Amino acid sequence: TTGANGSFGAEGPETETDSSGTGGMRKSLERKGSAPNDAVHLQRRVGLFSGVALIVGTMIGSGIFVSPSGLLVRTGSVGVSFIIWLACGLLSLLGALAYAELGTMNTSSGAEWAYFMDAFGPAPAFLFSWVSTLVLKPSQMAIICLSFAQYAVEAFVTECDPPTSVVKMVALLAIVMILFVNCYSVNLGMAVQNIFTAAKLVAVLIVICGGAWKLFQGNTQHLSNAFSGDTPTLGAVATAFYTGLWAYDGWNNLNYVTEEIKNPSKNLPRSIMIGIPLVTLCYALINISYLAAMSPTEMIDSEAVAVTFGNRILGAMAWLMPLSVTVSTFGSANGTLFAAGRLCFAASREGHLMDILSYVHVRRLTPAPGLIFHSLIATAMVLYGTIGSLIDFFSFTAWIFYGGAMLALIVMRFTKPNYPRPYKVPIIIPVVVLVISIYLVVAPIIDTPRIEYLYALLFILGGLIFYVPFVKLGMTPRFMNKVTLFFQLLLEVVPTSSMFE
Ligand code: ARG
Predict the structure, then answer these.
(1) For residue 472, is pLDDT > 80?
(2) In this prediction, what percent of the chain has a pLDDT beyond 90?
(3) Closest CA to 340 of 189, 132, 143
(4) Which of 140, 247, 391, 400 has the least CB density, counted as fewest CB within 10 Å?
């Protein structure tokens, strides 16, 4: 990893000044057809079971262990927060069903990128890959690693809140470890993913069983009078949704691997219809369990709800809780970086980002430059952000694009009426999700205007400054070749096409 470390400082600025110095999109689209990876992608290995596992394993991560307190603060009552937990599940299900139509209609990988390309053309598609590579994926990584650190540190600190600097350092350590795993080998990354997914289900089961046990003992007092409290404002409800929707994020994850699903027109919708209600059920039960063990006020005060829960319920086995949460979040962060590497890899291969980001390591065959790049941005986010602020920022930006995908579906019903649609949703579903996503994006701006939202919008549109010269006009600054060569030698990476010649 020393070589990789050497590039940390140097790689960041380059991407700023030249995020798309490639030979333009047309050329790279041609390249796509012959890319050997597509042959690998086309192997259909994901059946119904793995499809469900992919959805559930991505969705359950840090959120259910950190968000419940935040949601309670924002809604002011147990009842409203519970309704929002369920509503988030329903919204994710509806959104995912619409994505099932999109994914079975356009089966190429890249999810939103491909749908935007079809419905709106290259500029909006570019803006998506720009934002997801620079903001969405790294912020997911940063949030999950911060949650990991909070629980890891909490296990050793009993008397007071753990110092922020220690939490941040542990989060950075997690990023480095996950980066190492994924640069080392794809198989190691997969193994970590499977083991940790199993462990996360154990954690969920412990919480649910512990809660059920408490309820049978008659600890139902915190669940009665659920609606006593102030009525939240519309903007507060929207930000409460941000907190809840974070826990459900990942509902569209199967769409990134449509090319690998066996019989996708059946298995994609089915995995969604099994996976998302399953997660919703788990989350509802876990929330009830928390309230069986502590009062809403205790829940709000707790830095790490699951640890407080464990201390109350598990007695001598209380250490199990922080351990399983760290395991769950570590696995989630691993899966997120795994997917992020893939996305970065695909987008740059299409000519939407720097070429170097699509290269793979000569011997290890891992997309190291993309992974390092994401981890660098995630590192900055860990240093300068907090879990809460990052979640708001993430959800705000993500829902602009989820809404965009709904619009793409609706638009294509009119512009491409005869396109084959093996799975078709009632048009009302994307319309409802679109309306809700507009509300989610607009309500917080109107209710409590924060400068961050403006920055996010400016950042998204700022992508156009790079799009026009580097992608649309296909200009390549001359120094780019030197930069690419430098990183190629430093990281020992090559374009995938050259490896199979
Ligand atoms: N829902 C997950 C959690 O609660 C985060 C998922 C991040 N999203 C993703 N596509 N990997 O931690």
Answers:
(1) no
(2) 30
(3) 132
(4) 400
